[in-house]
Structure formats: structure tokens, C-alpha cells
Amino acid sequence: MIDGKILVIDDNKSILSALEILLQFEYKQVNTISNPNQITSFPNLKEFDIALLDMNFSAGVNTGNEGLYWLRELKKKAPHISVIMMTAYGAVDLAVQALKEGAADFVLKPWNNEKLLVTVKSAYSLRQSRQEIQQLKKKESHLKQVINQDKNYIIGASKSLTKVLNLTRKVAKTDVNVLITGENGTGKELIARELHRMSHRKEEVFIGVDMGSISENLFESELFGHTKGAFTDAKEDRAGKFEAANGGTLFLDEIGNLSLQTQAKLLSAIQNKVVVRVGSNKPIPVAIRLVCATNCNLDAMVAEGLFREDLLYRINTIHIEVPALRDREGDVLVLADFYLKRFANKYDKAGLRINSMAQEKLLEYTWPGNVRELQHTIERAVILCEGNVLKPTDFLLNTNTKMTLETGPATLDEMEQFMITNALNKHDGNYSAAANELGISRQTLYNKLKKNKK
Asked: Is the CB of residue 51 less than 8 Å from the CB of residue 85?
């Protein structure tokens, strides 16, 4: 028995009885109505899967207009219900009109039981398909919200940052390709997300790809997708990042790390606006907003033959240069306060503040790792602090930024501090990863941080 609900609407009680007897052995619930005026007040109408609706209710009338009217009313109350129209007067134009009005099918009286059951089953399948589509749309909408949710913010009011944000707002309303440049840790991805957030594609997905982390032999599979069996580990068909971002924004970070061979493949996809999955010959059209980012000097790379000039022209319709933190006058303390509140809340250390001497230390530092380094510095200080006031000693800074293993630090402690700071910056503040690289335990790393802080 099918777990479905059916409603039969007909003014002939013999018809109602016959259909109820026929359908009750096939479907979980069968209800009947002899007066169509009951449609608008019928309880839980949206829960029904199928309605069998007579075309004519008044004696001597066979135009079908009554049925069309009640079809419209029924669809108003239950938009996703599958409606099968019934009449003893067959007419092609009437059937066509009913289908145009939203009917799923059309049957003539008297009916063949087997054919009617097949028709009802098809209508039930249609109803199930509509429900699945609605659920998928809801899931898709929720997924887009999750993917696009802002996890970070653009904080600051310096002239250099304001200039960048003004340019971002102007460009966001267009579909031109944008190249974002700047040092590591300046917030290039945040600018890319801001472009997406203010664009007409904001309800679609934002897909970010770290080009530096993709090996050359997996480049096409990751970006363009692959078919089942295209290579050893291709267990099923898979869409690439271009397809996943279709309709939205595709952000290619660290684009300066691509080899010339992969640059050529990327250029072809951008120019033709189509991709071909690995193992397939079928072109798939894609409509994306392309945003790229790099900390490399692409013009210099073009001059050295390391980056294709035609690709640079394609991705560089608009160029946005994100300023280094040292060039954002006044933003250091604004950002420090922002991250202080965030991490104080995260680690349940309310009431923290930075004293004036510590603020001076933060202002004097050049921040080679930019905003990312400041963020990790504040987080470390919050984790390790033992009072409510953060002092200069609470902030572990790499004060000798030009120090290298070749030149050598002045002392063993400086070497240790240098290595710890570099490891933490390299792993975006991940203590476990930094400790693993340094060959020590996480607790030992904490202990050394506390020792260097004193």
C-alpha cells in the first residue's frame, strides 16, 4: 500500500463510492467531497498528495468551466497537490486548458480501473517529485547561507583602507574580473567576499580555491571536475569548482603559484566560459564572477616569462591593492580592540584591556604578517594572560624580523622566539601544527611561550 493521501471531489455519490472502494486498497487514506464548496474549508488540504476533481457539477452543464474554477481554487489552497480532472464529456481543448491551469492529468468517465490506477500512480510520483524539489531548494538555500556567512569582518577607518573599500563597492555591482594583490595576511579574501556580498550574485555561492595547495596533476579535476573512471580514484562523477560556483563567485587565491601549463588551461576556461570534465568531451557552460588574488608581482613574472601576459589581461580588468597593516594609520589599535573582545569572549576572560605601554608596543611594531599576525598575537596574549590588564610582556612579537638562520640570532632565547613566532604565523595560529613542526608537544609550546613572555 502506498503511503499517500487522496481526495475525490464529485457530486455523484456513486462515483465517490466506486473510487473510494477502488483506491482504499492502494493508498493509505482516501477522502471524498460531494460539494466543491467544501474545498476552501477542507482541513489539512496541503497534506493531500492527489485530488480527483470532476469537471461539471451543475445539472445540464458540460462546459467544464466549473471544474477549471475549482481547480484554480484547489491550487491556491494546496499549490503542490497533483490534480486529475474527470468528465463524461471528452474534448481535446478542455483537456489542454485543464493542463494549462495546472492539472496533472485528465480521465474520462466511465474509466478503466487499471488505466485509472496507473494515472493516479503517475500523479502521485509527480507530487513526490515536487516535494523533493522543494526540499532540495530549501537545502540549497540553507547551504548557500552557510557557505556565504561572514566569519570575519573588514575592520578599520584609515584612508588607505577606505580608498580600497570605496573601489570595492564601485566594482561589486559589475561582473568584471578582479585581481586583488597585497602582502600575506592583509585580508585579500575578505575583499573578495565583500565584492560578492555587494554584488547581484550575493544570493548565490562564493567558492574559494587555494591554488597553491592544488598539485598540478589534480588541477583539472579540482577546477573542471571529472567523470567516473576517468582515473584510478575517480569512483563517481564529480563537479569541479567552476561548476560549483556557477551563478556565483569563484575566488582563486595564490594564482601566481600556477605553472605555465595550468595557466593555459585556466585561460581557456575563462575565455570560452565552458569547462570539460576530465574523462569527458562534453562542454559545460559556466557563468561565474571571477576574482583572483596573489602576493606575487605578476607584471615582473610576465617579464621573466613565468606568467602568461594574456592570462594577466583576462583576470586584471580591475586591480585592487590591499594595503599592508603598517600603512593603515590608526587601524592597529582598532583591530587589536576588536580581536581582544572576540577572544576574551571565546576564552571566557571578560573585562580584558590593553594598557598604554602595551598599546605603544603594538603601534611601534611593523607587523610583517599584517592583520593575520595581529590576530594571532592578540589570541596568544588572551590565552596566556594571568590578569585583566595586558602588559607589553603579554605580547610575543618577532622584533627582529630580518633575522634568518644564516645571520643568526643574538641569543638562544631569540632563536627560540623567532622559530616559535614563524611556526605560528606559518600555520595561522594553529598551536598543534606549530608544535608538530617544531618537534615539541603542545604543552611544551605553551610553556615556552609563557617563558618568553616573562
From this structure: no
Radius of gyration of the chain, Cα coordinates, nearest whole angstrom: 33
CB 5, CB 29: distance < 8 Å: yes
Cis peptide before 110 (omega within 30 of 0): yes
- Residue 326: burial class (beta carbons within 10 Å; 0-12, 13-18, 19+): middle
Alpha-carbon distance 421 to 414, whole Å? 10
State yes or no: pLDDT of 362 exceeds 80. Answer: yes
Q: Which three cell numbers stand for residue 361?
A: 608596543
Residue 149 is predicted with a pLDDT of 56
Do the Cβ atoms of 449 and 417 come closer than 8 Å?
no
Q: Contact, 56 vs 78, CB < 8 A?
A: no
Residue labelled with grid coordinates 606549530: 434
Residue 148 has pLDDT above 80, yes or no: no
Contact 103, 71 (CB under 8 A): yes
**pLDDT tens across 283-300, in order?**
999 999 999 999 999 999
Q: What is the C-alpha separation between 127 and 7, in angstroms, rounded? A: 14
**Nearest C-alpha neighbor of 276 from the set 315, 235, 239:** 239
What pLDDT sits at residue 405? 42
Do 400 and 414 form a contact (C-beta atoms < 8 A)? yes
User: Residue 26 half-sphere exposure, CB side, CA atoms within 13 Å?
Assistant: 16
pTM greater than the 0.70 cutoff: no
User: Sorting pLDDT into bands at 50, 70 and 90, what band is 441?
Assistant: confident
pLDDT, averaged across the chain: 86
Give the Cβ contact number of residue 64 at 10 Å.
Answer: 21
State yes or no: pLDDT of 326 exceeds 90. Answer: yes
- How far apart, in whole angstroms, are the C-alpha atoms of residue 107 and residue 123? 12
The beta strand positions in 145-280, using DSSP E, are 178-181, 206-210, 225-226, 238-239, 249-253, 274-276
Instruction: Give per-residue pLDDT as tens, 71-129.
Output: 998 888 888 889 998 887 666 677 778 888 888 888 888 889 999 999 999 889 888 88
Q: How many C-beta atoms surround the C-beta of residue 71 within 10 A?
A: 22
Query: Exposed, middle or buried: residue 187 (CB in 10 Å: 0-12, 13-18, 19+)?
Result: buried
Rounded CA separation 273/261 (Å): 19
Q: Which residues contact 383 (CB under 8 A, 6 or more apart)?
A: 343, 347
Helix or strand or coil: residue 225? strand
Distance CA 310, CA 350 (A): 53
- Nearest Cα residue to 251 out of 222, 308, 201, 291: 291
